[in-house]
Amino acid sequence: MSSDVVIRAEGLVKIYRTDAVETLALRGVDLSIHKGEFTAVAGPSGSGKSTLLHLLGGLDRPTSGEVFLEGKALSKLHPEELARLRLERIGFVFQAHNLIPVLTVLENVTFALELRGVPARERERRAREVLAELGIEKYAQQFPHRLSGGEQQRVAVARAVVGDPAVVLADEPTASLDGENSRALIDLMRRLNETRGTTFFFATHDARLLDRVKRLLILEDGRIVSERVQA
Amino acid sequence: MRYALRNIKRAKRRAVYTFLATFYPALILVIMFGFAAGEMQSLFDSATKLETGHLQIRSAKELSGGSIPIFALPEGLVDELAHSDLLEFWTLRLDLPALAAIGSRSYGVVVQGVEPEKIRRISPVPGLVVQGRYIGGSGEAVVGEELARLLNLAVGDALVLLSAHPEAGMGAGVVMVVGIFRAPQAEMGRTIVQVSLDTAQDLVRRENAVTSVVAYVAGVTGPWHASRIEKAAAELEKILPPGLAVKKFAELAPEVAVFMQIARPVLTAFSAIFFILGGLVVLNSFYLAVLERTRELGVIRALGASRKWIMAALFWEVLVLSGSGAVLGALLGTGLIALVEKLGGLRLPGAYSEYLRAFGVDPILHLRVSPGEVAGAALAMIGVAVLSAWYPARRAARLDPVEAMRYVL
Ligand SMILES: Nc1ncnc2c1ncn2[C@@H]1O[C@H](COP(=O)(O)OP(=O)(O)O)[C@@H](O)[C@H]1O
Ligand SMILES: [Mg+2]
Fold first, then answer.
1. Could you tell me which of B103, B173, B186, B169 has the C-alpha nearest to residue B141?
2. Do residue B11 and residue B146 come from a single domain?
3. Among A6, A97, B9, B138, which is most exposed with the fewest C-beta within 10 angstroms?
4. How many other C-beta atoms can be found within 10 angstroms of the C-beta atom of residue A228?
5. Is residue B346 one of the residues assigned to a domain?
6. How far apart are CA B112 and CA B93, in angstroms?
7. Which overall architecture, per CATH, does domain A5-229 show?
8. Shared domain check, B265 and B156
9. Which structural domain, as residue segments, surrounds residue B353?
10. Residues of chain B contacting A100 with CB distance shorter than 8 Å
11. Residue A225: HSE in the Cβ half-sphere, 13 Å Cα cutoff
12. Can you tell me the mean pLDDT for B30-59?
């Protein structure tokens, strides 16, 4: 079991302090993400989903507790080492405005590969392959603002998976989409999960999307209140 | 750096500001360098051609009262100068304070004993003669119009000269006025009486007496050759017998030397204002750019770009903009200067121009700028721009990705 654990979180607590106000965003979360999983973390707005994903992805540090990415304790890493780790091992999809507006769709997808020093020919081959798989290859040379919201999010997913990360962390990737597009996006992610074996861990507060996931965590008030594995 | 170039395209207006903020200072600095060099040349010419020369050999003594000490030209020195290739040209002078008198009238003057043939090359006086002719030999004199009027002199009159040099005592002689010149300056017209060197030597009753050897150093065409003058002066010092000293034009015309010394610092300080303004525009423009791109920089950082990458992206941007701005500005400046030169230089305005011409100085300002100055102006501007972008770039690199992505403009 331990060898296929991609991320393990132990006792994650996150307290935001702003002036006099303290917000307890996470109150002790333990979880493991295994290779090849397709997991959703659901919960109402403010339940701590984004906070959890930020901590798991090394974008922020917990107040206490530890995150292990492929066995490596993130709290021991320098910010630049964390950046490197994100670059190489994690794919991110955010709610909206994911894409770099001055770069074309293709350039957006190859961006992280370029930062990693993958040769140009190789980057383009891999990016076109993923774009084709997501049915948006025809937009390769377009700039993001020419695409619909659903298409933009698909590009973001393409960018997240193209580098074959250990896990793709997606924070409400469908938040800006209508029901139909939301479902289509989750279906695409699911397909990538099957074809490429990419591990997905995404947050949502849209209950309608949850029948597509293999594993479901419910987060309430900074605590995981239930967990369900489904076929 | 594709991202940097795209950002330039994205915010064209901002790119134009940054470009202009580096273009104008570089342009202005190069043109100012051009003017400074032209002005210095003009000053140098008026200083050195005004019978001062690049340097003078004089007695090392100092006399109170402003007279130049007299010394006996050592035997062999003339030969030595003639054989040395240090000097392109030199001539002997004996300047004496004197009283010029005719009938019952008299006036205090400076008698300049000159070598008539040689002095033509450097003194404006031969060219300024408006009545009669310039002196050709012993016993002749030319005087200015003002002096002629004061003493009621005409060509052909005999003039009595009473010299009173502190080292030589009184001396007297009679010369014939063979010409009257129109001086560019009333003071000069009132006080200068030019005679041949031997005539002046007769007044002090000393053969070989001179006050100075006025010399021009080979290969010196302008103030930028000051170091050659220095070198020649040092060489000359070695062959001079004791008691004689070399005075460089900087000592002979101190006001010009001072101007040349301060011109560059003053110019630099002046252009620094433009550079600072340019830098502030760059700073402002990049600060706003970073603010505007906060969200996207957050995404880039979240994806795993290093701080170095983000700094580099912004530096590329400023480098491309300020590089093209500064280089084009400096080149345009160089081009304008070359154009002005091709059209024959800048004519100086009226009175000053007449004044210079009267002294035999070209009244046209020749702008010039050296490749070093052009490169220096462009590089300095680029340096200022990059430094100005430092703070915004650092801010961008230190953005917290989570905070940055939450940022809405
Ligand atoms: N940077 C922050 N500063 C202060 N409070 C925050 C910050 N980020 C989140 N919170 C608070 O933490 C709690 C959890 O927020 P979040 O993780 O964004 O929840 P979700 O993504 O489930 O909506 C909320 O109460 C939110 O107001
Ligand atoms: Mg959220």
1. B173
2. no
3. B9
4. 11
5. yes
6. 7
7. 3-Layer(aba) Sandwich (3.40)
8. no
9. 2-46+258-406
10. 3, 296, 299-300
11. 11
12. 80
Confidence at A91, pLDDT banded by 50, 70, 90: very high
Q: Does A124 touch chain B (CB under 8 A)?
A: no
Return the best residue to mutate from A13, A16, A17 for the ligand 1 pocket (most ligand atoms within 8 A of CB).
A16
Q: Are residues B292 and B355 in the same domain?
A: yes
Q: Which two tokens stand for residue B299?
A: 């995404």
pTM for the predicted model, two decimal places: 0.76
Across B347-351, average pLDDT:
71
A39 vs A157: CA distance, rounded Å? 15
Angle formed by the axes of helices A105-115 and B294-303, nearest 10°: 50
Are residues B158 and B40 both part of a single domain?
no
Residue with the smallest CA separation from ligand 1 atom 26 is: A46
User: CB-based contacts of A20: which residues, under 8 Å, 6+ apart?
Assistant: none
Cα B189 from chain centroid?
A: 27
- Within 8 A of A98 by CB-CB distance, chain B residues are 299
ipTM for the whole complex: 0.93
Domains held by chain B: number: 2
Q: Is A87 on the interface with B (CB under 8 A)?
A: yes
Using a CB-CB cut-off of 8 Å, the residues of chain A touching B401 are 59
Kindly state whether residues B181 and B293 are assigned to the same domain.
Answer: no
